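Cross-check.
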Amino acid sequence: MRRRERRGDGVPKGVLHIARELPSREEATRFMHEEGLPPATLETRYACGGEVRYVIFRSANGFVTYCFERLCFLDAEEYRHSAVPAVWQPMREGLCKPVYASLRDVRRQIVFEPEYRMYFAHDGEET
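Predicted model, tokenized:
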């Protein structure tokens, strides 16, 4: 006798699938605020309504580094297969990140980055 492993809808037998509504952009942004931060995060700052951030963190070898990230929202089909409504993506892929000895050194240098000047240099626009 042959055992049937799947139902006709493609969901494994015994697995309950609950349809979820895709959250609004604002809800997704609020939900993703602290998601995906490195464990050794030292500082995080947000811009563009929380959709852009920079993260300063301590690397595995003890140095301090940073990255600029943009929130990429999933569509309804992607969200059906994901636990989160969006993902944080680096603004520049494959870029070697500079490393510094201290948080103070990073703060002095980050202000020269094009992403910092574009999103964070203007007072009053931070969220």
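Residues 63 and 101 are 6 Å apart (CA to CA). Helices lie at 25-31, 76-80, 103-110, 114-119. Passed to J.P. for a second look.
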